[in-house]
Design goal:
A 5-stranded antiparallel beta sheet has the order 13-12-27-26-25, with helices on both faces. A 4-stranded antiparallel beta sheet has the order 1-2-9-10, with no helix packed on it. The chain is elongated and about 95 Å long. With 538 residues, it is α+β, with helices and mostly antiparallel strands. The longest helix is centred in the first third of the chain and has 18 residues. The protein folds into 2 domains: 201 residues, Penicillin-binding protein 2a (Domain 2), CATH 3.90.1310; 307 residues, DD-peptidase/beta-lactamase superfamily (Beta-lactamase), CATH 3.40.710.10.
Length: 538
Amino acid sequence: MRKFGENRIIAAAGTFFVMFSGMAARYYMLAEAPESSDIPVQTAAESRYMTINVRESQGTIYDRNMVPLVNSETEYVAAAVPELLEMEETAQYAVDKESFCRKFSTGEPFTFVCTENAPDMPGLTVFEMPVRYTADQPAQHIIGYISDDSGVSGIEYAYDPVLRGGACENSVTYSIDGQGHVLLGSGKSVVRSRKQDTGIVTTIDIRIQRICEENGAALKKGAVVVTDISDGDILAMASFPEYSWDDIGAALESEDSPLIDRALYSYSVGSVFKLVTACEAINEGWEGNIYTCDGSIDVYGQQFNCHKADGHGMQTMTEAVVNSCNTYFISLSGVLDPAAFRELAHTLGFGKENYLCAGMTGSAGVLPSERELLVPAEFANFSFGQGRLTATPLQIGQLSAAIANGGEMPILRLIKGITIDGETVGGEKLPVRTRVMDEETAGKLRDMMTAAVSDNKGSNARIRGKKIAAKTSTAQTGRFDGSGEELCHGWITGFFPADAPEYAVTVLAEDGGYGNEAAAPVFREIVRQIAELDKEKQ
């Protein structure tokens, strides 16, 4: 139903743009580059007109504050009629003078990139044109890219009819005589498109997106997701390694698969899932459970080890979260109801897709079946986030948002709506939140996550003077590197400020090792810099 509704919005928006464009001109071929001499020129004896088509304009993808994520820079392109110009005089305005003179000498109308001060005159018409992408293009995985004038991935693909439909033309038309010479007395007719004002408004905050991209660059492979905990708006979603729109070939050949949006892919979860186990234990009345960890535990003849070989000693539930004690939660699973536990995990978003827009859907991951969880060893693995369980950074971020939001989990949102003027947003939907745990339980989990940072002197998520809530993870993968070391995914998820949460932040370091070493330092810097942004607003 959500996909059907979105298709209706896209179709309606495309029709709306066409109906109100007010452009009666025909569509012409898009010049792939301004230096091309193959500019479509329309001539007909019966019409006595000649039209020079410049690049077509395209709709803009905006951030939540109407800051362009594409079309953020402009350049000047001129349409020239050689018979009405002096070559040497006009060449001074060309960015590439050699190319200009070569095309001018053919005597045929052409376009060229010019300087900002190039004047409009009878034989020269200057257009200020948006540049689609920049050299340091932000949010590349979200935006996607274009090939052959069509969106291939990301929002470029999902909203192709809106971004490239309607009145896109930029052109100049002259009256000509029977020999094809321009009739100066008739002047010229210029069509300037404002298509770039229309477009798609996202929930992304470009400032936070850039913070995540700059700090996430420390991850060889991984993802960062930042959400507004109250409404589920995705403020930043970055995947690493990044790729460049102007070298897709290199991205296709890279062994690190940079074209993959890792925020949408599922991975082994690890200790972050202990928050779900703690939630179920509270629901079933086991909040006061105390267990003595000696470094290992036997489950029906199968031994499970804690990451601390000599054990953590006597542990309360909060201490077990702070110390990330595996055996505590394995022991706890022995008294929990597998069916209720699995149902809670599903309610909290595990095993469910996150649909953002066409072509951008977060994987459902793997949530073991109730039957599988009846196997003691599988249920033991499940209790501390191992075994078959997998989830995406989006799902883990949604879990943090639910805990921070007093037990109400928001539906994640990437698209706010459409705009026809670059100023107002239409079609925006109200936030949707679902209660997934009671407020008291959420408060207890918030306290545990706060303690996991404040009471853990070795936590790399700590920021002096700031109260942060977070939980790290080191998820085993069952894969090994060339030296025989097991590859592990490092995670951290949390929210801040801990006492009045606004933002949920999740960092995944794919094959990065320990969460506290690979993911927590990235998390810390992102939190610190977002907090600095908030200071500037005050």
